[in-house]
Amino acid sequence: MSESDPLADVRARVAALLAEHDPATTDRLEFLRARYDAGLAWVHFPPGHGGLGYPRDLQAVVDAELAAAGAPDNDPAGNAIGLGMAAPTILAYGTEEQKRRYLRPLWTGEEIWCQLFSEPGAGSDLAGLATRAVPDGDGWVVNGQKVWTSAAHRADFGILVARTDPDVPKHRGLTYFICDMHAPGVQVRPLRQITGEAEFNEVFLTDVRIPDSQRLGAVGEGWRVATTTLNAERVAIGDGPTPREGGMIGVVAKAWRDHPERRRSALHDRLLRLWVESEVARLTRMRLRQKLAAGLPGPEGATMKLTFARLNQALSGLEVELREDDGIRYDDWSFVRPHRVNFTGRDVGYRYLRSKGNSIEGGTSEILRNIVAERVLGLPAEPRTDKDVPWKDLPR
Amino acid sequence: MSELNLLYTDVEEDLRASVRSLLKDRCPSAAVAAMYDGDRSVVEPLWRALSAELGVTGLLVPEADGGAGASAREAAVVLEELGRSVAPVPFLTSSVVATTVLLGTKSELLGQLAAGERTAALAVPFSAAPDRVVPSVRAEGNRLYGEVANVAGAVEADVLLVPVASDDGWTVHAVSGVEPTPVTSLDMTRQLADIRLDGVAAAPVVTDAEEAVRGALRAGAALLASEQYGIASWCLQTTVDYLQQRRQFGRVLAGFQALKHRLADLYSETESAAAAARYAAAALAEDDPDLPIATAVAQAYCGDVAVRAAEEALQLHGGIGMTWEHPVHLYLKRAKADQVGLGTSDRHRAALADLVDLPA
């Protein structure tokens, strides 16, 4: 076993883990903790924090071998914000103490995380947020309202951006915290959306005390820390290859094949156009993945989200028309709180409505076009009349 | 099964740099525009230089047959650069399509094409899609009769490869000494010509040739996507540069959000075209079983993107884009003609319907 051969090393570690903790007889949590301690949770993380400092693509080897051995996984979809956004931020800005305290139970799923960023008055203009954190003894007192918080009702912690200095321009007066979702003053209410269900929540923070030991990064550095989180969100394009007809196009193609009686020529050309665009999007993603693996910067990343949002919306809209009367029956309007988004487990009307959010969540398509135009093509930035004005003096 | 590589190798990047540098010196856009007024003097020296100095004519020919033994990946990079300069050379028609027809035969013509000693064209209409082409010429003994209209590359060719159908299947005959009738074309940088065969003597060079002809057109279609990506890429970059310096209302046009968003969308489509074109080139180079789908996808996508990029470039340049003096019209004409070339996007979508089981 040698660190000069990471592939052989991870394989040996997987074998040792399985030998010492037979998945068939080991308690699920016990196995997951042992896996973390063996550095096999996320191999690109540093040793001591669930990783080995190895290239990220080796994780696929670990996941495949453990799955083949019947080992339990950490239910990644159940803690997507924690794994995809909180963890990379804690790794980048957390103290040793914070990394030791939070990362292991985050990875095993013992502690669920949510994200307290967006506010009713701060969507695309996130840096204009108004939730206040005021110093108080050895900690802070927080007041404000957050919105579009998925998993808040199940979460143990939230990554929170709050305003600590209203007297400086908006980007400079923010600080990043870890908020205990069980603390007094945290109130979570479901936010019903156009599909009928409530994937998201509103979170009201009333005199919530946060110890200074739960601050992530320096006071006033919150915007920089939040940028790490948001970049991680966009990197989450996924690691593996997508099969042809993966995603929404596969659902619509199947509907077309299964129902010859519904086919019409005008829809046929629309379907073929969208099939081509879906396949080209798959190839574009493949090329981006190859570029990242080769260490080349791939600015197409920002465009992928634009493309997928547009295709999801066009395909689900087409499928409603293809199904005609069946397309305008709706499976369920009841006000439930789903564990995760399930595009294919629901009827087409749900897909049509839910995909409308794809061009809003995680950066609207309009903001993404600004980002592509400015950061990729180098075009001038939008005028920022509020850039040098103290936050408290901004009109609102 | 390993994934097809969609990136460029160092060898490919070196080839690109050489082609780009040669085109910069010897393919000025004013000389290309002059072709619309009948001055074709840019073509011959440029074509000879590309062949003699860079050997592009032999890329697809094995070394044993006198070629460079490179692959479709390198040919695709050449086409990207030719598209970026709307270069008026018969690379696609002679070094890709006609050459591919002859691959695997022992015809001495193959080595001559590779060396740039001769230039050939496949006598089919430029719009011929790989799965739809039908020979229109008949043979009586070793003499050919019939007409083929709108052939690309015939003006530059000194030998025509003529597909002929008979009860025994398809044959391809080589014909020299026929004067094609040039056609005033939308794209004079790839001028079309009509061919009339009145009992000219011909020698069969490929027998049982249907798959060779369709395969050559498929190779042409797969690689035309790279030319289309090159056109789109030039149009995007040139428009971005122009809008960065053009001022109206006291500010540069590139700062207007309505224009920024159009350019962002065009960038997204152009990068997507690069992926589709690269995938088709790689599939052709590897003779991958996915080649028919890869080709149809690339042609159903890239041709439309090139046209949109040229149309956007013209509109966003405003009045100057409408002038004869500015080169954007050369790209628009090439892009629009290329969209028809080797099968329109709707014909490739129709082919896909069969290939991926989405019947009408």
Structure, explained:
Chain B: Belongs to the acyl-CoA dehydrogenase family. Chain B: InterPro entries: AcylCo_DH-like_C (IPR036250), AcylCo_DH/oxidase_C (IPR009075), AcylCoA_DH/ox_N (IPR013786), AcylCoA_DH/ox_N_sf (IPR037069), AcylCoA_DH/oxidase_NM_dom_sf (IPR009100). Chain B: Its cofactor is FAD. The complex is a heterodimer of chains A (396) and B (360). Chain A is of the alpha+beta class and 396 residues long. Chain A has three domains: 1-73, no CATH class; 113-233, Butyryl-CoA Dehydrogenase, subunit A, domain 2, CATH 2.40.110.10; 237-362, Butyryl-CoA Dehydrogenase, subunit A, domain 3 (Up-down Bundle), CATH 1.20.140.10. Chain A is 40% helix and 13% strand. Chain A has helices at 6-20, 28-37, 59-68, 80-93, 96-108, 222-235, 248-258, 265-293, 301-323, 348-354, 365-376, and strands at residues 113-116, 132-136, 139-146, 157-163, 174-180, 186-191, 200-211, 215-216. In chain A, helix 4 packs across helix 6, helix 7 (248-258) runs parallel beside helix 9 and helix 8 (265-293) runs antiparallel to helix 9. Chain B is an alpha+beta fold. In chain B, 51% of the residues lie in helices and 15% in strands. Chain B is built from eleven helices and ten strands. Chain B has helices spanning 10-26, 29-33, 43-54, 72-84, 91-102, 108-115, 210-245, 257-285, 291-317, 328-340, 345-355; strands at residues 120-122, 138-140, 143-152, 159-166, 169-176, 181-182, 192-201, 203-207, 247-248, 251-252. In chain B, the strands form three sheets. Chain B has a four-stranded mixed beta sheet with strand order 1-4-5-8, with helices on one face. Chain B starts with 9 loop residues before the first helix and ends in a 5-residue tail after the last helix. The mean pLDDT of chain B is 97.
